[in-house]
User: Fold these one by one.
Assistant:
Number 1:
Amino acid sequence: MKGSESKKNDIISWEEYFMGVALLSSRRSKDPNTQVGACIVNKFKRIVGLGYNGFPDNIPDNDNKLPWGKSSEKDAEGYVQHKGLYVCHAEMNAIVNKLSVDITGCTMYTTLSPCNECAKLICQLRLGKVVYYERKTEDKEGKYKAAEKMFKEAGIEWV
Ligand SMILES: Nc1nc(=O)n([C@H]2C[C@H](O)[C@@H](COP(=O)(O)O)O2)cc1CO
Ligand SMILES: [Zn+2]
């Protein structure tokens, strides 16, 4: 039997496609607790940056040099054993890995809503829109609210 000659219509949307790529990227993360992925897309619907959360480059991650835990205690050498001191967020990595000098107006798809530090980067690089998959609900320190405020004030669409 020959295949159909008319086009297939039941395909995934651009939004599903780019968020799907962000979700796939998150699966590279070695964080035992939370895996996040981010995908930056330009106005021509080309992917210009990908990232997931992990420790900085060139630090071997198989011999526990840095902690994956969230303790406020210090180890024998006086280093606080909290991953937050070391992890590069998915959004930051997607920006650092960008393939294009100028990402003004681009859209970032992220599997988790951005923190205030990543929001600062998103503002500085003048992205136009941030689309998140899951929203961070716990916000004791006000990081996510601060991120939203920056997006609002900078005119960055946030959905
Ligand atoms: N938007 C985000 N992008 C990220 O890459 N992360 C990373 C940082 C940590 O590696 C992990 C959060 O760990 P936990 O607090 O749920 O155990 O996710 C976290 C957030 C939330 O702000
Ligand atoms: Zn962040």
Number 2:
Amino acid sequence: MQNLLSKIYNPKDLRKLPLEQLPIVAKELRNFIIDVVATKEGHLGASLGVVELTIALHYVFNTPNDLLIWDVGHQAYGHKILTERRDKFDTNRQFGGISGFPKMSESEYDAFGTGHSSTSISAALGMAIASKIKGDVAKNHIAVIGDASIASGMAFEGLNHAGVTDANLLIVLNDNAMGIDPSVGALKNYFTNVKAGKAVSKTNIIKALNFNYSGPVDGHDLNALVKELERLKNVKGPKFLHIITTKGKGLEQAEQDQVKYHAPGKFDKITGEILPKKNVIQPPKYQDVFGDTIVELARKNKKIVGITPAMPTGSSLKYMIEEFPDRAFDVGIAEQHAVTLAAGMATQGLIPFCNIYSTFLQRAYDQIIHDVALQNLPVVFCIDRAGLVGEDGATHHGVFDIAYLRSIPNMVIYAPMNEIDLRNILYTAQLGINYPLAIRYPRGRGVTLNWKKEFKKVEIGKAKTLFEGTKIAVLSIGTIGNAINSVIAELPENEVGHFNMKFIKPLDEKQLHSIFKKYKNIVTIEDGTIFGGFGSSILEFSSKHNYKNKPIKQLGIPDKFIEHGEMNELLNEVYLSKKHIKSVLLDILTE
Ligand SMILES: Cc1ncc(C[n+]2csc(CCOP(=O)(O)OP(=O)(O)O)c2C)c(N)n1
Ligand SMILES: CC(=O)[C@@H](O)[C@H](O)COP(=O)(O)O
Ligand SMILES: [Mg+2]
């Protein structure tokens, strides 16, 4: 065992090694990633697939002076380990530890922060143009982008611009024919044909866009990669290198089951087997309540269609795709398209359930306003991963959706408190609505074992009194209401009332008037941003109706980006833990 990796603090050390030793570094780097991710969890398959590319890029280019951008960034573990973070890598994604994604504030080697896909080409082009303006003509600018991410509109906007510049830009397409799930779409078919060498020389899309195209190159062949990158380093203008890799390379199970090993959780580093979870019956994941219920409803209602932008497994829309392949669509990483596609379907009388993670829906904001809400189209937005999401951190927390949706006219916004609420609102949506409806629910599991009850229609805009009290009215929305219930159970009896407002918009004004007339103190609690969120809507209500001397205390996500960590650590950090909620309520009771 040579143990070369331990001698590499940063790429300067790597560059001192002879080319023949790089495969040894690759082996050690791969083992290092497997060792740590096996116990600390995280994104595995993507990083294993780019081990050789990572080494070759840092070997050939003069990072950090040359600027290297990792699209999405979930494949950058090898990059982090080779760039001064090997000793910290066991803190990856943990509270207070390094981020699971590249982050400018973390390292000078992270030229641009990523997490959401398809930004790398625009960012690298921006840097390349800046270098030209500054007269730094020798600087290289490299974007590494996956085959699923390059199919996104934003990546194409970057290609379209780059092709008419003389920017010193290298785009490396890491083609493994996979996103999280298998890649989809005509572009995927095109790349498959390129790889098979089928009649593409005359019609190469990338060449047609004015790039100096090379490839496909075996992305696990270090000699070939280094040779080609050395050549491209001396080619001026926009360049495009197409490499072929295997997601999960080097761990048999990860190569075989690439979807599961995208982010497998804990696994045995020797056998590669995913460690079994405790054998206890648990409530379902909210994503599965959605996935299961939409299939149940679609069996009876032929107007239902489902849409996911590249998250069929994560959203559980895959159940509908499996049973109704003609009515459920994975459209690739294309949130904007997904929303306007849903709008188009809605104009023709279909009932589209457009399932997008809260954080990724941010990308389709104009489509929500301009294509859906302005035309008052009945699109059902199923907004998964709403609220804090844990270890993915600041790029992925779904904490803005309440604030960014609440200001849009026509929009109805609902947050189920449990699985049964989620089922019932999905049922209600397909009975027929004449407005856009947003349903937001969190990552992870619910609270109910016996959740497949008979459907009940939800009354739009109606809150639910969970229990009355005498001194404080707690107004909550969504699943955080369950934690609040258990906190109130520990407080003096009958003093704190709890109202599950259910609808962020429209508010149940009748219920609010009766609450404001009865209670002296109001506390709002939500898992979204305090600024512009649900609590703000209660303040607006209070101000509009001139309720005086009613202190309203708002609990929610403060005005800062929340980093990564376990959910309980993050809830503590934002003062939304049960302990903190209890102390806020006790303080008011003892005032
Ligand atoms: C805008 C956006 N939508 C969805 C995602 C979720 N997501 C993360 S990785 C990924 C697949 C990326 O595939 P590819 O670019 O081919 O990289 P690979 O994992 O194959 O290396 C998806 C859909 C995201 N990060 N950003
Ligand atoms: C990198 C990325 O964006 C996804 O892999 C994301 O981490 C998935 O999140 P979930 O684990 O919540 O599905
Ligand atoms: Mg891919």
